[in-house]
Every structure is written in structure tokens, then in C-alpha cells.
Amino acid sequence: LAHSYACLKMRSILLFVVILPFIHCSCPEGYELVRDGECRGFASKIASTYADVYDRTAEKCAEVQGQPIIIHSEEQQQYWLKKREAYTSAYMVLGMRCNTTTKHAEWMDGSPVDYIPKDGGVDDMTYCYDDCSWYLWHDGHYHSLCSQIDVSADAFCTVQLQQPVASGDGCDGFGDDADDRMCYQVGTIAENWQDAQKTCKFFGGDLASVHNDKENSFIRRMAVSRGQMNGVFLGGIRFGDESDFGWVDSTTWNYANFKLGYPETGKGSCLSLDTSNTAGEWVNSECGSSHAAACVRNPKNHACPGGPWKEGQYITSPGFPFDASFPCDFQFTVAFGKRVEVEVIFLEANSCCDQLVIYDSFNGGNIVANVTGEIQNKVYKTRSSNTMKVSWMPDGGVNVRGMMITYHAV
Ligand SMILES: *[C@@H]1O[C@H](CO)[C@@H](O)[C@H](O)[C@H]1NC(C)=O
Ligand SMILES: *[C@@H]1O[C@H](CO)[C@@H](O)[C@H](O)[C@H]1NC(C)=O
């Protein structure tokens, strides 16, 4: 992207590498994220002439990869009229131009003038001149002014957010082994088996079960590409002392690739895959030892994960950053006598429709905050409670990424 806006104070987030590229600013500074991933805002004053103001406005908006105001609905009309009042803006430039061939007014993206303001309508709609520009007038009608008379106008623009494109196979940020319609991912940090399983759960999956050589090699290669040369945890766990293993995702135990001499009886009960050579052999490790998680999940599984959540853990809305349409409640508890402080690291929600509501305590406590739009690195605290509920309540979540939060005791 050509533009870079001062925004996120990025810290080192130890998280799945797949998510990091998607945590960045979206709307230009000072713009409001309103609906369907459309940012709207004031660009600048323009000193020009009636004839040229449209081109100058289009240039200004192009600087942020946006375009001047285009109106196709009552919602947009009312939004801009309100904005116009707030700016006491006499000359609010519209993205309307005269089609030199048909001599009809049209929007700059070529779309027809299909919304007609109730009062006054649109000037020169069916016969227009080349040296005119249109303005949103105080009474709502689209007023055209022409010729070389000087004008000081207000350029407002809209910018459409570009969403990360999901992979199409439903794996969305996970890798597809192109074999059995399952999706895999390997974590970036070493953690014990239980935490590794929680990491996978967080992404709607489980620690990986392995059912053939192909899957085994796929996971090993993925681990290597993530820099995990010291092995990864698989979803295998042993019952009792013998070589009686099962998969945490409840799939059938129908394949094994143990290193010679393993599993060692009486030793560790958790299964890890040796990534240091191409054989990708398994050993039984202590469950408290540290390896990165190798996770598996079904395509399109964006279930709301139940927690519990650890302090400092990075928590995202289900499907983040590809799909923000799944609602989810998150409950946090800290030590008795302490308060909960949640940090909204990243929120991208349509202010028309999607809400993030933060409650003092779990059950119907006071609302600490009810926020939407774009937020980065902002903290909210409970008043006295050591519990907090955070509800992600999208109404559509159209063309936005959703949220990432974390919490601490204070
Ligand atoms: C004018 O309108 C015609 C017919 O709708 C269209 O094909 C053409 O692209 C328009 N011209 C410009 C400059 O947009
Ligand atoms: C949060 O704010 C929105 C918009 O103002 C409102 O519609 C919604 O009811 C509020 N939610 C709660 C739980 O108060």
C-alpha cells in the first residue's frame, strides 16, 4: 500500500505468524469506519474554481486511494448532510461529473445517479456542461455551479478497506495439505502440551492428529518453515504406562511413526514430532516440556472458543482476520481484590452495525464501554469487579477484520 499512517504502536506479539501481517491501520487518520468497510472523512479545503474543484477533489482523494462522495442511498445522503452541518461547509464537493458523450450527470466511478434527493433533486441531471461541479446543498439537493469563479470548497473522501483474501479452501490462515480437506498450522512459541492444545482451540482446532505419511511430512515441512527445529507437539496422548495412545481430536489411531525404541514405557505421555530430519519421527515427551503446537482444524470452523483465557494472551474474534461475522463472549477473571483491565489492541468494526461491549463482571453488570469503528491500543477497566465480560457483537461484520484484545489484573 502506498499510504502509511501513524497508528499502531506495534509490540512484539508472539503469536501465529499468519495473523501478524493483518494487524495494521486501515482508515486514513481522522476518517470514520462507517459501513461495509467504508471509511469516510474530511480530506482538505480546496481553493479552486467552480469548474476545477471536482478534479482537485478527485486528486486529493486519490492520495489516500479514495474517491469523492458518491451517494446511492438515504443512509449516505443523511450521513453527508449531517457532516456538512458539522463543518458548516457551504461547498461540499460531490463525486459527480458530466459525461461528455451523453451529457448526463453521473458518479465518477461510472455508476448512475440512482438516488434522487427528495427535495430539489439533482441539477443538470439530463443535460450538463463540462465545466461544472456538483455540491451537496444544505437542503439536500445536488447543486451545480459552473465556470471560472473562485471557490473555497471542502473535499471529503471515502476509502474502501481491502480485506485479506481468504484462501478459498476454508483454511483461512492455516495451511491446506491439499489431500484430506484438513487445515494445519504450527505455532511460533514453545509451550507445554496443555497450553499448546489451548492455542489450537483458540484457532478453532486441536493439536494435530496424523493419519498417514503425507500428513506427517506436511506438518514437518510446515514446522521447519516456521523455524521450529526442536520438534512440535502433536495431539497424541498416552493412557496409562503402555504404548496405548489416542488423539485429542477423537479421530481413530490408525497410523504411527515412532522412532526406534519409542514409545518408552513409563516416560512422557505426550506425543511430539522430531522436526530435525526428514523422517519426521515421533517420540513420547514429557507433557510439561516445551514445543510449538502443531494444530489441525476443519475448514471454516470459526466457532466461538470457550476459554479460559490467560492474562496477557492475545484473543481475537472468531475467524479473525478473514471473517468478522461470528459473535462471541469472552469472560476474564483475575485475583480477588484486583480489577480487570482489557486492552483493545485492534478493533475494526463498522460503526453502523458492529459493537464491542465491555461489562463490569460476568452477569449483566454495568457497561464499562460500548465501542465500535477503529480502535488501537486502548484500555478499559472494571470499576471494582475482578471479573469482566467482553461481547463481540457484529451485525454482519461486512468487510472488516474484527478485534484483537488482551487483559491483565490491575
Ligand atoms: C459516458 O457514458 C457512456 C455511456 O453510458 C459510457 O460508455 C462512457 O464510458 C462514459 N464516459 C465517461 C468519460 O465516463
Ligand atoms: C451499544 O451502542 C449501540 C449504538 O449506540 C446500541 O445500539 C446498543 O444497544 C448498545 N449496546 C448495549 C448493550 O448497550
UniProtKB/TrEMBL annotation:
Keywords: Disulfide bond, Signal. SUPFAM superfamilies: C-type lectin-like, Spermadhesin, CUB domain. Residues 304-410 form the CUB domain. CDD domains: CLECT. This is C-type lectin. The lineage of its organism: Eukaryota, Metazoa, Ecdysozoa, Nematoda, Chromadorea. The keyword Signal applies. Residues 1-25 form the signal peptide. It comes from Pristionchus entomophagus. Residues 179-296 form the C-type lectin domain. PANTHER family: PROTEIN CBG13490 (PTHR22991).
